[in-house]
Amino acid sequence: MIQFLLNQELRSEHALDPNLTVLNYLREHVGKSGTKEGCASGDCGACTVVVGELQTDDAGREHIRYRSLNSCLTFVSSLHGKQLISVEDLKHQGELHSVQQAMVECHGSQCGFCTPGFVMSLFALQKNSDAPDPAKAHEALAGNLCRCTGYRPILAAAEQSCCGKQPDQFDAREAETIARLKAIAPTDIGELNSGDKRCLVPLTVADLADLYDAYPQARLLAGGTDLALEVTQFHRTLPVMIYVGNVAEMKRIETFDDRIEIGAATALSDCYEALTAEYPDFGELLHRFASLQIRNQGTLGGNIGNASPIGDSPPLLIALGAQVVLCKGETRRTLNLEDYFIDYKVTARQESEFIEKIIVPRATAEQRFRAYKVSKRLDDDISAVCAAFNLRVENGVISDARMAFGGMAAIPKRAAHCEAVLLGQPFNSAVVERACAALAEDFTPLSDFRASKEYRLLSAQNLLRKYFIELQTPHIETRVTAYV
Fold first, then answer.
1. Residue 368, φ and ψ in degrees, nearest 5
2. Which residues form a coiled coil (predicted)?
3. Cα(2)–Cα(185) distance, rounded to whole angstroms?
4. pTM greater than 0.90 (yes/no)
């Protein structure tokens, strides 16, 4: 059984189909049809809901963290122990919520189909903002599409709703909601079981290892932003899933003198602060990683584990010399991330083995790390080419070189010939030009609807030139903002 709060209503579910999304649960099982399906792939934001989760801050104070999610990509099993808020829950005692009222007064709704998603994104923004901030508003709404092109009044609604915000019914009930969430906090393995399909929800790494050993055919579910597409887009059935999002050990970020250890189930939005502090370009790229809804849900381990050749984080992590800790039963092994990827969607992971955490070396003064993403749109788009460069230059000579790319091969991959040209050489334009030529030996990219093979290779070479120019003239730093 799993338990969660539907606003303030306790829901206990056991026999549901584990393949059921939160979107369809709301619309078909509880009659809340305000949440809309626009794309069923996490691109349009019409299905946005907000999930509240009990958190404890550094001072030991308990509070509820509210986050926007795409309900079309969220399986119901991931709600275990949390609070689900949909657009119907905002109106209180006959009065519109302040974010709804702002949309009305600022004329932010046109055809109205996308409006519930915008309202929920604004609600989450208001809960996480103390004052109007245009940059945060754009980030919060980047995952919501308005086909009537009504963004200006919607942004005005964002400003109004965050300006001088007043306590609402959720603030008034916070102590009560905290108590109710504590009462339903999972204490044992949860399960949804419809007879022919099941999803298991472990709480510890040991339980996860045992379950995965018992069900090696199971699909591991973390954020689900990739896995759920098999259900929503390809109409496949997932007979057995194991949801790892309640394993607290795999959601930790620990900083040591020489490394950062990030649990594989850590949401990308939670990785931001730690990675940005060490590598500002990593943080900039995370701002362009899909949408806020996806970053609130998708995990660093999942972005690695799905082995996509165009995943944004692997090239950066490879260039930084990151490692993954793989767990199987009581056995663990540490593998360089570049050795984890073998071929298209083929990895070094063994049966019943899973990524437990990612180890990222901390920055040193000698490193020159930069990352670049080339895509058709600035926000919420997949890379055509993603490049990460990490050189160590001592006394004008390149003593170490790690150059990694996504979108250039069947796997995220280092540019070995390019690195060989650079090593031991002075860091000047002539050497960089030879390194650019060597990229043609490292990669034979494919053509697809995102870019031709010629464009990809030329972009990779130009990004290396861009990297060199930026290091020579530090005031010129467009970095990851490059796009087609």
1. -125, 85
2. none
3. 10
4. yes
Collapsing DSSP to helix, strand or coil, 350 comes out as coil
Backbone angles phi and psi of 352, in degrees to 5: 65, 15
20-183 has CATH 1.10.150.120 classification: yes
pLDDT over 90 at 381, yes or no: no
Q: Distance between CA 248 and CA 201 in Å, rounded?
A: 12
What pLDDT is attached to residue 483? 45
Q: Does the 369-472 domain belong in CATH 3.30.390.50?
A: yes
Closest by CA to 307, choosing from 338, 333, 341, is 341
Residue corresponding to tokens 């020579």 = 472
Q: Is the pLDDT of residue 479 over 70?
A: no
Average pLDDT, the chain: 95
Q: How many CA atoms lie within 13 A of 63 on its CB side?
A: 11
For the chain, the structural domain boundaries read 20-183, 249-361, 369-472
What is the Cβ-side half-sphere exposure of residue 235, based on CA atoms within 13 angstroms?
0
* Structure-block tokens of residue 367: 């490193």
pLDDT the model gives residue 132: 79
CATH class held by domain 249-361: alpha beta
